[in-house]
């Protein structure tokens, strides 16, 4: 689980987010929803330790993220960015990058590392593409491969920045179903997105002034999952409890 406690973060003299508190529990897909500029990426950068918190604390498995060593943190939390260069390597080689935090100076993979890569590809349905060039895959297929790399990295928490960006509607739905199925394995998932991942499955009544950005935790259930709204987020406002019609 990853938990933010009264976190403020920003750039220069300006706070982008202030006094934000929420938790992404294990076994659930937690979506941080809001338009561009609402502070989602700033929060994600704080959670991945690429941006220091100005105040507050972030806990990963009940420990402050500041207490983790570099390799230990990489073994506990994986990050799947929105966009990245597409390397000219095979799918298996790319997924194997997720095991780098476990390798020694020789960078030689053990049988345990190889098994983790195979299992990650199996769970994401990418095993049949193991020897294909990543550049030859479609956008949706590449997202599955990058997800496999994040799973191969192990740990308890996976942070995703707009994983459905640039995908067509069908590919977005397939990716969401995959995320929900692997979340059921007990990991904590935090997904940043600009719109509700599956609006057709949600009945939400929100005042228009809070519709700018919301936090929702979506339990990994088979169909029409209930949504537990845990707060609202504006650019420089705190997340707080609120009631919603469901």
Task: Give me some keywords for this one.
246 residues; alpha/beta; Rossmann fold; 6-stranded mixed sheet; 4-stranded antiparallel sheet; 6 helices; 10 strands
Description:
By secondary structure, this protein is of the alpha/beta class. The chain has a domain at 2-85 and 156-232: Rossmann fold (3-Layer(aba) Sandwich). Helix content is 26%, strand content 24%. The chain is built from six helices and ten strands; from the N terminus they run E-E-E-H-E-E-H-E-H-H-H-E-H-E-E-E. The protein has helices at 40-47, 70-76, 91-96, 111-123, 139-152, 169-183; strands at residues 2-11, 14-24, 28-33, 55-60, 63-64, 77-80, 157-161, 188-193, 214-218, 228-232. The strands form two sheets. A six-stranded mixed beta sheet has the order 6-7-8-3-9-10, sandwiched between helices. A four-stranded antiparallel beta sheet has the order 2-1-4-5, with helices on one face. Strand 7 (157-161), helix 6 and strand 8 form a beta-alpha-beta unit. Helix 4 packs antiparallel against helix 5. The radius of gyration is 18 Å and the shape is globular. It starts with a strand and ends in a 14-residue tail after the last strand.
């Amino acid at each position: 689980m990853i938990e933010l406690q009264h976190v403020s973060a920003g750039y220069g003299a300006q706070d982008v987010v202030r006094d934000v508190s929420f938790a992404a529990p294990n076994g659930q897909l937690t979506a941080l929803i809001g338009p561009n500029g609402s502070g989602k990426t700033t929060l994600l950068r704080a959670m991945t330790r690429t941006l220091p918190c100005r105040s507050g604390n972030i806990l990963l498995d009940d420990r402050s993220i500041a207490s983790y060593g570099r390799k230990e943190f990489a073994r506990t939390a994986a990050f799947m960015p929105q966009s990245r260069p597409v390397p000219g390597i095979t799918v298996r080689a790319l997924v194997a990058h997720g095991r780098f935090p476990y390798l020694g100076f020789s960078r030689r993979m053990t049988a345990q590392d190889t098994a983790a890569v195979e299992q990650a590809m199996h769970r994401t349905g990418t095993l049949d593409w193991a020897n294909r060039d990543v550049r030859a895959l479609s956008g949706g297929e590449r997202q599955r491969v990058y997800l496999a790399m994040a799973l191969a990295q192990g740990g308890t928490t996976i942070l995703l920045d707009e994983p459905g960006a640039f995908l067509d509607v069908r590919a977005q739905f397939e990716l969401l179903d995959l995320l929900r199925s692997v979340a059921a394995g007990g990991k904590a998932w935090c997904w940043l997105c600009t719109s509700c991942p599956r609006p057709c499955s949600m009945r939400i009544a929100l005042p228009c002034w809070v519709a700018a950005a919301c936090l929702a935790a979506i339990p990994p259930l088979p169909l029409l999952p209930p949504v537990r709204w845990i707060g609202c987020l504006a650019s420089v406002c705190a997340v707080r409890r609120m009631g919603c019609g469901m």
